[in-house]
Amino acid sequence: MTPDSLFTSLSSQLGTRKQRSLQLIHQICAEQQERNSHDFSIATIGKLSKARGGPSEQAIRNKNGDEYRQLIASWQCTHNHKRLGRTPVEQPQNVLKLINEPSVRAEVGLMLAELKQLRGEVRLLKSLNKDKVIIDKSIHLRGSSNSKVELLPAIPLSSAELHALENAISPATFENNGWQEDPKDHSVRNQHGRKVFETGFVSAIKTVLDHTKK
Questions:
Q1: Where is 189: in which H helix or E strand?
Q2: Which NCBIfam families match (predicted)?
Q3: Which of 155, 167, 157, 174 lies closest to 83 in space, CA to CA?
Q4: What pTM was estimated for this model as a whole?
Q5: Which of 29, 53, 147, 211 could bridge 75 with an S-S bond, Cβ 3.0-4.6 Å?
Q6: What ranges in the chain are assigned the alpha helix state H?
């Protein structure tokens, strides 16, 4: 779902005052996009909004700021697609038409868009693991704490591929989606503690990036 479509859907369910606030957030994000800024963090959008009499960063983060966060996340997703030279694709209408509540339909549409992007990133990781990275799987009969998995030099990634990986674990992506890295196993969890990405997701991407940039 595009930011404009999401804005229209969300606005139809809000009162006049909150509609004006959402309109300001929408305008600020559009201006960020026009100036080719990569910063769609809640902190930055909140600062710009407050300076113009709109919702502050704290107001956006509050429980009642859900519509603001959805719209900002949609703009971030659209911006990322454009940086990679792709145009966001509208979600299958046959799925969304089954949802009668407009606000819920808008949120599901956004989740479907994010899911498609994440699937693309997973396919990229699988491709890297299959075709470009060789892992030493030899068995060490005498185990040693110094034993390590060795990655051989990989084929250089394109700038678009590197950006996709960096964006997947960027602070802005984690902040906008309410994610946190579990320091114990490097998995990714949402604000409710549910695992979004499996064990080793963050460390795997960092390893690929570090190895590629050497």
A1: strand 188-189
A2: recomb_assoc
A3: 167
A4: 0.42
A5: 29
A6: 3-11, 16-34, 42-51, 57-61, 66-83, 93-96, 102-127, 159-168, 171-177, 201-213
Rounded distance between C-alpha atoms, residue 174 and residue 179, angstroms: 5
pLDDT for the residue 124: 67
3-state secondary structure (DSSP) of residue 118: helix
Specify whether the CB–CB gap between 68 and 60 falls below 8 A. yes
Locus of tokens 């990714």: 188
CB 55 within 8 A of CB 188: no
**Both 107 and 134 in a single domain?**
no
Q: Are residues 72 and 29 in contact, defined by beta-carbon separation less than 8 angstroms?
A: yes
Q: Rounded to the nearest 5°, which phi and psi values hold at 10?
A: -65, -40
Q: H or E stretch including 190?
A: none
How far is the C-alpha of 47 from the C-alpha of 182, rounded, in Å? 29
Q: Give the Cα separation of 29 and 25 in Å (integer).
A: 6
On whether both 136 and 90 belong to a single domain, the answer is no
Whether residues 125 and 99 share a domain: the answer is no
Mode of pairing for the β-strands spanning 180-181 and 188-189: antiparallel
Spatial distance between the Cα atoms of 77 and 131, rounded to a whole number of angstroms = 28
18-73: per-residue pLDDT in tens? 999 999 999 999 999 888 888 899 999 999 999 999 999 999 999 889 999 999 99
Q: Report the distance separating Cα 116 and Cα 108, nearest Å.
A: 12
**HSE of 116 in the Cβ direction (CA atoms, 13 Å)?**
17
